[in-house]
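Intended use. Records like the one below are meant for learning the mapping from a protein sequence to its folded structure. Do not use them to infer anything beyond what is encoded.
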Amino acid sequence: MNLSKLNEVLIYNDYYHVYQPIINLKTQSIIGYEMFFRSKQFNSPLQAFQLAKREKLLYEFETRLLWNGILHFFQSEDLSFKKKIFVNLFPSTITHPKFIAFIKNFISLLNVSANQIVIEVNEAEKIQDFELLKSRINYLRFMGFSIAIDDINKTITEVKKILELNIDFIKADIRYKSNFKFKDQKRILIKSFLKICKEDVHMVVEGIENKDDFELVKKLGVEYGQGYLFRKPQKLKI
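Structure written out for the chain above:
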């Protein structure tokens, strides 16, 4: 991987977004969509983010994707304006000194409602300043944004700490995790997360790829689900 690939993405907008629905498991209606980055310049999205972080361009990269991805979402013919859009951001982007000014300008210029945007804090990056992140999240919620913790893969003690961030959604991915390999282990872990979630914290289980997983999470009382069983991430029509 080299910097020229990232420059091409940033300068020429050589990328696109795909969107995957998040489903109310009880009604099987769509409550929102998660936004994903794609580019032919990289074999996987992870490569792009790793390169951006290494070259100290992660903030610029993520805010560019955020702007264009949400603009595309609200311009789409496919979606109702009542649906939520879930967007992933690393903790270092949320705590960046310029982020709050950016997000205010973003909301104003695009004329979109913060109430329809869910910011997913990406757990792939270590939180360097927990109190600063907590303060930023509180301010974003004051502005009207909802907050999710993406791809929880932690101990119960760590999850309890995460819940101090005053979040709205907690997301757990049941794909490819050894903890979720067998049905009994899936049940135990999901029940543990549900038990410690506050009343106003909603759980989303990602990676639902077959009917067995669907019936399991629905029976356990999980509110929302996401996965290939419902729909793969797709482009939207403008």
